[in-house]
What does this fold into?
Amino acid sequence: MKRYGFIGLGIMGQAMAGNLLKAGFALTIWNRTKSKCEPLVKQGASQGETPAEVVANSDITFAMVSDPAAAKELSFGKHGVLEGMTQAKGYIDVSTVDPNTTIEISQAVNEKGGRYLEAPVSGSKKPAEDGTLVFLCAGDHSLYEEAVPAFEFMGKKSFYLGETGFGARMKLVINMIMGTMMAGFAEGLSLGEKSGLKMNDILDVLDQGAIANAMFRLKGPMMVENSFSTAFPLKHMQKDMRLALHMGDENGQALYTAGAASFSYIKARSKGYDNEDFSAVLKAIRE
Ligand SMILES: NC(=O)c1ccc[n+]([C@@H]2O[C@H](COP(=O)([O-])OP(=O)(O)OC[C@H]3O[C@@H](n4cnc5c(N)ncnc54)[C@H](OP(=O)(O)O)[C@@H]3O)[C@@H](O)[C@H]2O)c1
It folds into this structure.
């Protein structure tokens, strides 16, 4: 049976690695803040001392970290992924980063004889726990095929989109749409409330019409209650908007609506809402 590694045990990584363990795979883990390894070690995971050690002990290593800077530090840094990389090993980065970052890491892995796949995920904390994520894969096809059993325990669907960079592009397009929708939704709720409407009435009316959707249905009632318990941290949504706008710049696509929406997330971060759910953009929009 394949030996898996998992690096980055934040909101998403903790749940995804947990599902690999439940599936019975041998798993070695590492997290920068070591205490986050404890729950998984109790469930049978081995704890590596460094990312390099995780890669050395595993056939395929997954990584789920914050952003491009974290993904690069993890790969290129001291005792990082590349130090443990040898011929034919697989490295699958499921973090949300930009295409340039994923291509740079892919090339470095290939130079060491390793295989690289990017597989950013669509879905949040609950789908990660339930094993119903969607994987947006691109890169080494043989590695994709070998990792399908693991994807099946962590997710409900995986797409293979072609050469490295296409997974990141797809993920940023999807999250740019989601971030823009959330900002528009929050503006509507705030405008409605300030003009005397009941927010719950707005949700009920929205839910009967053509723009009813799963996100409004899930997040709306919590936003009305001012409850922003974190599934997707706001700082990561602002990062995704920033990366998508840069992608627009590189591809000659003006992104007026997403650009305007991104300012609401920047404002929310300046107010200290980094670690609240991205729906807390409502608070910044209200103020
Ligand atoms: N949450 C969601 O709904 C969701 C959905 C889809 C995609 N994503 C994406 O998935 C990624 C992780 O999201 P998350 O919600 O799990 O975030 P999170 O809870 O903030 O976890 C971030 C992880 O990255 C690690 N990390 C940060 N900087 C690092 C560095 N320089 N070196 C090594 N490790 C580092 C953190 O380690 P420490 O524990 O030491 O801080 C932690 O394990 C992000 O790219 C996010 O955009 C999230």
